[in-house]
Amino acid sequence: MDEQTFYLKACINGVRTPDEHSALPVTPDQLAAEAMAAHVAGARAVHMHPKDDRGVDSLLAADVAAAVAAVREAVPGLPLGVTTGFWALPDAGERRRAIENWSVSPDFASVNWHEPGSPELVELLLSRGIGVEVGIFHVEAAQSWARSEVAAHCLRVMVELGADGDVATADEVLAQVAAADSPAPVLLHGLDESCWPLLQHAGARGLQTRIGMEDTLRLPDGSLADGNAALVTAAVELLSR
Question: CA-to-CA distance for 143 and 69, rounded, in angstroms?
Fold first, then answer.
């Protein structure tokens, strides 16, 4: 698979904090710099978690606007997505109201299907012209999503496995996703120990994939990466083989 045939997205921070890695981007300026570096290294899109003044994930309009505007100014035209993770605002009604108040919208947003209120949140995002990346963490979520009315309207389906995820589990979930017959492309990724094996499996299966400091802080050889660009560079090398 050569560099022109695969789709690699950079997930530049996630729920992690600088306590885990000093280069983890938190402020809008840091997010913009890491997004640019990841794009230059080969990422076709960026996913990020806007943070508040404490460095904690935020869905509030001011925090989302500051982060999105900074990245857009630094890398005009780069497809840009944000989280809607339930942990950032763990009340379905409050989460929905926060997103209704977004004044500066990303190009897409990720919605974990198993979280409370997610079907309604998907409909809200679609009504606002924001693309939806639906996150599928397990077989049950895949089956529920496949039966939903929004399955045909998602921008992307992300099969997201934890650190203990393996190829067999990935293929089981992917089979359930395929059964939905959705036109949305499928992205596969892992976390920490499962990150690099599942990235390679995504490449072997011709699926989209992602890499970045949300998913791992380490390069394939186990050494600590100095930032998102190094992770993207390593992923491009693996996927290009």
Answer: 36
Q: Looking at the whole model, is its pTM more than 0.70?
A: yes
In degrees, rounded to 5, the angle at the alpha carbon of residue 31 between the alpha carbons of residues 214 and 37 is 85
Secondary structure (3-state) at 54: coil
**118 with 96: CB under 8 angstroms?**
no
Plot region of 154 (φ>0 → left; ψ -120 to 50 → alpha; else → beta): beta
**Structure tokens belonging to residue 58:** 């935020």
CB 214 within 8 A of CB 189: no
Asked whether the beta carbons of 6 and 203 are under 8 A apart, the reply is yes
∠ CA 181-81-137 to the nearest 5 degrees? 50
3-class state of residue 172 by DSSP: helix
Mind listing the pLDDT tens digit for each residue in 99-114? 999 999 999 999 999 9
Tell me the C-alpha distance between 13 and 75, whole Å. 17
Q: What is the pLDDT of residues 180-208, one digit of tens each?
A: 999 999 999 999 999 999 999 999 999 99
Cα 146 to Cα 24: distance, rounded to the nearest angstrom: 35
Count of other CB atoms within 10 angstroms of residue 146: 17
Token readout for 198 is 């599942």
Q: 195 with 189: CB under 8 angstroms?
A: yes
Instruction: Check: CB of residue 165 under 8 Å from CB of residue 191.
Output: yes
| DSSP 8-state class, residue 57 | B
